[in-house]
Please model this.
Amino acid sequence: MKIKITTKPRSTFKVRFIPEDQATGLPDFTGAVDQMSTRYENSDGILYCGIGPAGSCTPAVIRTTAAKAVQTVQKLKRTDAAFIPAEISGNTVVLETALIEGILLGAYRYTAYKTEKPVDITTVEIVGGQLRSPELKRLHYIADSVNYARDLVNDNASVITPAYLAKEAKKLGTSGKCTVTVLDMKELQRQKCNLITAVGGGSATPPVLILIEYRGASRSTPVTALVGKGVTFDSGGQNLKPTGSIESMRDDMAGAAAVMAVLGAAKRLNSQINLVGVIPAVHNAIGSRAFFPGDVYTSHAGKTVEIWSTDAEGRLILADAISYCRKVFRPDRIIDLATLTGGIITALGEQIAGLFSNNDELATALFNAGEKCRERLWRLPLYREYHDSLKGDRADLRNISKFKKGCASSITGAAFIQEFAGDTPWAHLDIAGTAYNDGSANGEIPQFGTGFGVRLLSEFLGV
Model:
């Protein structure tokens, strides 16, 4: 899609944003939030979009309204439109940025397996816009990265295998400031990443650990490690998931998809930061080599873990990945993203991700970044009692707590991961509720994979 900044619209279809106090003279239109009305004057079409009271209009309202507007334009099978922002006070650059974000994110539809392709909008004019080419390019690249993460989540699990993710990662290392290393099964065994090999051992597609180094700044600049859970399909292992829970489990690599997308955006934008992307990619399958509930495995860090559920596999692979990352790269801070627990959906719903951290400064910075870009987080506690519930009887740790079934599952899952973060500033984002949308599209949030975390981390890191 091309975004053009113009002073005068050329398209015959216009999209006007109207606050309530400017909705006079439009029959049956009040300018309320979410109200849209299509009118025709001769051969020209106009879509009026309500944004509520001018004094309380936020970037979030503009972003969501723009997304719904571009979806309406697509349903009308228009290939171009001129968007005319509302005349309201406030930071016009911020509002214009939100407008363009809404257009780029809202236009996304996953149609790879549709035989009849829908009409896509190809050109959008922003009338009276102020953003210049570098700013537009950044918005395009970040939106492209979000949509890339969405595509990875939405494609078939038979396509998006650990080997496929490794192949995609290697594309980042073909030029520029990225170096990509992939540890295969033999190397993982040699490095004693026994939790990763245990989880991925039952699959015909063996596990890999993908390492992406991006050096965009001097070596004295701090290094941030982004660790993404990459379970390309989660059957639950021998603790098999039931019908009703298993069908969408291709989304269990949404954390890995977000990490890949952020690294790709940083490279394209030549960001002045240092990053390490760490992706443990596995298929948690049932097979002759599948790992067993009740067995004890030794982690990369040397701690032993008793398996109380093979369906609590994400924390296992993250434990080895974080331990390996700390040993080899010695990052200044670690952020992991994982579709870890259904319990976070019970706690926070599908709009907010769970935030856990051993560092108040890091947690606050992530929270603020989420508020700014509207990929929101809420911090939960990690008291000693949660860690104590993970003490094993036959091993150092157990991968499920001793609490009653389902109690504080998101917290104890995070507590398990923290056991391997040591004293490195660390944050865990449980994105199980926000990474995938079972319902219909809601503004800039599409059906199925959402790409959650890409904009959040890009904002936090200054990509």
Summary: The radius of gyration is 23 Å.
